């Protein structure tokens, strides 16, 4: 039996939205952590498989966050190959950050499981932190968000909740072979979410739904690469077609408490001044 108490954990995307929070929590528990990213002390690059084994080193567990997205071309092959390298290096406990309602994400999960690892899957809904640590930060700061999102409810999920669940799966027994559906506690449309952020900041922030083709043209005019435009258009149209307009019970199952509400996220983020800086 592996003793995970003092075992090294590799946290991929360890400077990103979820990985950073996971690394902080593991460090606070006095557990050894290695940040797996291109800027890590031992660099890890999804585009360069030669970096994978050195980054794994003698880690016994790894948090697997693929970049840019589990629905991106090449994700299935990369995650499957990484998991095989991990298992053959002795890193058997793998916790995958997956997506909800996406065939591509399911294929990534199967590739991970096919490695023979002790796997856990976190099927996550849209992160609240996309508004404060991702591509929606600048539109919110500018006071106007325009997206090709339909008026469909999405259970926005707090990255702090994902981190709490991931740390449990990385450090405790009993999570191998489990698929956890992680969502926030209620459905909001993008218009609802922007309105809650506006209320929390006390500033007017507009929301305009735009057709997908117009959104793609506007991004292309700003120089956004075609593959990024394709991915965002897919996420805002296909994945937001109503298939995910339901709540999951993963946070309650793992943590025994309800998920954090979007209003709490908006209040705390506004209080930290993130949305005020121009
Ligand atoms: N955002 C959402 O709402 C959402 C919802 C469900 C699932 N997901 C899944 O979550 C995963 C992460 O998405 P995210 O938006 O939250 O991103 P993120 O974790 O915030 O992404 C940034 C992280 O990725 C690292 N990174 C960037 N390029 C890399 C590369 N080539 N090789 C290795 N590391 C690299 C960055 O560090 P360096 O720059 O130092 O390399 C940083 O640590 C994706 O697989 C996505 O499908 C996201």
Assembly state of the chains shown: single chain
Q: Beta-strand percentage? A: 5-15%
Q: Write down the overall mean pLDDT.
A: 96
SSE class: alpha/beta
Query: What is the approximate shape?
Result: globular
Uncertain stretches: none
Helix content: 40-55%
Number of helices: 12
Small molecules bound? NADP nicotinamide-adenine-dinucleotide phosphate
Rg: 19 Å
In brief, what are we looking at here?
With 278 residues, the protein is of the alpha/beta class. The chain has helices at 19-28, 52-56, 75-89, 103-113, 130-133, 137-142, 159-171, 190-201, 212-221, 226-237, 250-255, 262-271; strands at 9-12, 33-36, 61-64, 93-99, 118-124, 144-147, 178-182, 206-209.
What does this structure look like?
This protein has 278 residues and is an alpha/beta fold. It is 41% helix and 14% strand. It is built from 12 helices and 8 strands. The protein has a 6-stranded parallel β-sheet, sandwiched between helices. The chain has a two-stranded parallel sheet with strand order 6-8. Strand 3 (61-64), helix 3 (75-89) and strand 4 form a beta-alpha-beta unit. Helix 1 crosses helix 7 (159-171), helix 3 runs parallel beside helix 4 (103-113) and helix 8 (190-201) runs parallel beside helix 12 (262-271). It binds NADP nicotinamide-adenine-dinucleotide phosphate (NAP).
């Amino acid at each position: 039996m592996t003793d995970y108490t003092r075992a090294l954990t590799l946290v991929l995307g360890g400077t990103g939205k979820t990985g950073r929070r996971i690394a902080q929590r593991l460090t606070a528990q006095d557990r050894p952590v290695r940040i797996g990213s291109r800027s890590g002390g031992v660099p890890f690059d999804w585009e360069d498989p030669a970096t994978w084994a050195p980054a794994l080193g003698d880690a016994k567990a790894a948090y697997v966050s693929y970049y840019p997205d589990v629905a991106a071309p090449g994700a299935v092959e990369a995650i499957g190959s990484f998991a095989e390298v991990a298992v053959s290096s002795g890193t058997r406990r793998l916790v995958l950050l997956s997506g909800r309602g996406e065939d591509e994400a399911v294929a990534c999960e199967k590739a991970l499981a096919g490695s023979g690892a002790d796997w856990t899957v976190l099927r996550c809904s849209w992160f609240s932190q996309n508004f404060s640590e991702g591509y929606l930060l600048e539109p919110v700061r500018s006071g106007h968000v325009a997206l090709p999102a339909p008026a469909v409810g999405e259970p926005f999920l707090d990255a702090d909740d994902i981190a709490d669940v991931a740390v449990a799966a990385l450090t405790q027994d009993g999570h191998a072979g489990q698929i956890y559906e992680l969502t926030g506690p209620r459905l909001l449309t993008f218009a609802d979410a922007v309105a809650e952020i506006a209320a929390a900041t006390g500033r007017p922030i507009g929301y305009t739904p735009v057709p997908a083709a117009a959104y793609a043209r506007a991004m292309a005019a700003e120089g956004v690469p075609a593959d990024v435009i394709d991915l965002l258009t897919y996420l805002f149209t296909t994945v937001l077609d109503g298939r995910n307009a339901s709540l999951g019970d993963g946070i309650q199952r793992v943590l025994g408490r309800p998920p954090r509400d979007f209003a709490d996220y908006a209040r705390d983020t506004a209080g930290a001044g993130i949305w005020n800086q121009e």
